[in-house]
Specification:
The structure is a single chain. The protein has eight helices and 19 strands. With 410 residues, the chain is α+β, with helices and mostly antiparallel strands. It has two domains: 107 residues, Rieske Iron-sulfur Protein; 238 residues, Naphthalene 1,2-dioxygenase Alpha Subunit, Chain A, domain 1 (Alpha-Beta Complex), CATH 3.90.380. The strands form five sheets. The chain has a seven-stranded antiparallel sheet with strand order 12-18-17-16-15-14-13, with helices on both faces. Strand 8 and strand 9 form a beta hairpin. Helix 3 runs antiparallel to helix 8. The longest helix has 17 residues. 43% of the residues are buried. It binds FE2/S2 (inorganic) cluster and fe (ii) ion (FE2). FE2/S2 (inorganic) cluster binds next to loops.
Length: 410
Amino acid sequence: MPHDTPVLPSWTSETTRVPFWIYKDAAALETEQKRLFEGPVWNYLCLECEIPETGDWRATYLGEMPVVVARDHDGTIAAFENRCAHRGALICLDDGGNAKEFHCIYHAWRYNLRGDLQSIAFQRGVNGKGGMPPDFKMSGHGPRKLRVTTLFGIVFGTLSFDTPDIETFIGPDVLRRLGVAAGGKKLEIIGRCTEVLPNNWKMYAENVRDTYHASLLHLFFATFKLNRLSQGGGTEINEDGSCHVSTTLAPEQEEDRAYDGLRSVDDDFRLNDPSLLDAVDEHGDRVRQQIMSVFPTFVMQRTQNVMAVRHFLPRGPDKTDLHWIFLGYADDTPDLRTRRLRQINLSGPAGYVSLEDGCIGGFVERGAAAARDKTSIVEMGGLGIESQDTRATEAAIRGFWRVWRGLTGI
Ligand code: FES
Ligand SMILES: [Fe+2]
């Protein structure tokens, strides 16, 4: 029997239909690495408070490209590809640390904190024999360097000279909301963990922009009225669709029948320890829940008094590392810090709210396993990507795909 290779359909429709092959196609994944992660976007790298001292460094990725971020002697932050210029080994093997300089373990080529090649072991050979050619110039070789910028203690990097400044990139709404959460105060890490998601990274990028699902998938949200679509709030999306903020305000009244008849939301449920939900309005804005995304892989969230960074990184076509960093302010009162630590139980891999996000992408992977030529429907809230004073919309997901398609040309 002749065996034809299936030809995947091109993606001609608007961003209201997303073909399932887009998560798997090898050529598409290679294109997104080159044109998106290595293209004109600000990739989240780390937090400034993770590298406060000279020589402090962290390892991360732009897509699949390994990167080192380090605090140099002059106090500035540098970032460079974690790839030895010699034969390509990782220069740094750990997640982070403090170093005076970096040595590749393979043949001991040495780099400074900016990733500049400093010396080559046995460059002149041994006893006059061997070694590198005399005209070999170290300055012409080294890992790729990133442009680095910081915003509210958050460090971003890009390989492209075309990336606009970070304020322009994220737009005024996201800038203002991020400023409330992270600006003006010194951030302090109060916990961290990593979970492995059984799905392509773009499914999680959709999930964090999916303002429609929160109160339906996450029963804890709806049951305890932390986040219902009937509560005030809305969805703010920047001009090109790349970044968004979704906000849920505290309910105006206790009586709310909007969820009657939906999956077992029982108004009679009570927590044995209600202190879990005992939050304070620390910014005076009545925000119960807020998700702030920066394209492509950064999220900052506020849930009650939980403040967290979520950084998700592709690990192949159907695997994603999701790094959680839980934050407080350095000047938190003991009472506020205790609330944050207690409420962290809502978030993370086993969080009362967020545990469902850890598996839902896997359910999509399994459900759509034989449907690469089919599409999902992304039509809630219309066809566009404009900000709306509702969360019953998928506008932010359409925004993600508009930018993804613009960058990849797919
Ligand atoms: S690969 Fe790094 S020194 Fe050889
Ligand atoms: Fe969710």
